[in-house]
Amino acid sequence: YLKVSAASLLTQRPLITIRKIKIEKLPIPNLGVCVIDINELSSDLALNEKPMSLSAKSDTGLDVAGLLDFVNAGAMHKLKMFAPNLPVSEMGLTDKCPIDISEAKAALSFDGQFNSKNMAFPIIVKLTELKSAVSGDKKVLGLDAATAKQMFESVKEMTLAANVSGAVDSPQLRVDVGKTLAGLKDGLIAAGKQQLANMAGEQLKKILPGGLPVDPGA
What we know:
By secondary structure, the protein is of the alpha+beta class. The chain is built from 4 helices and 9 strands; from the N terminus they run H-E-E-E-E-E-E-E-H-E-E-H-H. A 9-stranded antiparallel beta sheet has the order 1-2-3-4-5-6-7-8-9. The longest helix is centred in the last third of the chain and has 14 residues, at 177-190. The N and C termini lie far apart (61 Å). 20% of the residues are buried.
């Protein structure tokens, strides 16, 4: 009888729940010294009466916030992050990219949501101290290889935009061509390459005849 009762109780309650954890002065490579807060950390998040939340902030400007909600039916989990001054070499940006980024600092930001079936994460990467080149002879952002080569060798800063979507176990990364072209155009203007910036603008008009609806740096 006791065994059956215990088993019944265990199916309704998590075995362990920690209401609050705070970690101060945790050093993390490339991210700085962090303060981390975690609430409602449980051995079974679906059985706990409250969603789990977490946040992390560092002395270098890292700001992360997340909510894992297995309590409310149909709720989406949420995660947002801003991380400045990340070395691009640590991010694997060029693994499947036609642009060879040999050197840059990146400020990464995203704010998205997900559940077991779907995810939606718009990502913005602002690159500075950029040294890049176009590898191969394929088109980049709809630009022919020669033009793209001129542009990417000229810019020292620009914004890349992408979206991660699909199932959590097989996410798909797609470059937002419109916002990335707009970021490239702004980078060319900053580099004093007005003629190349105009060419990027013409390509942008072909892709988005109605104009760019959202600032690429937003």
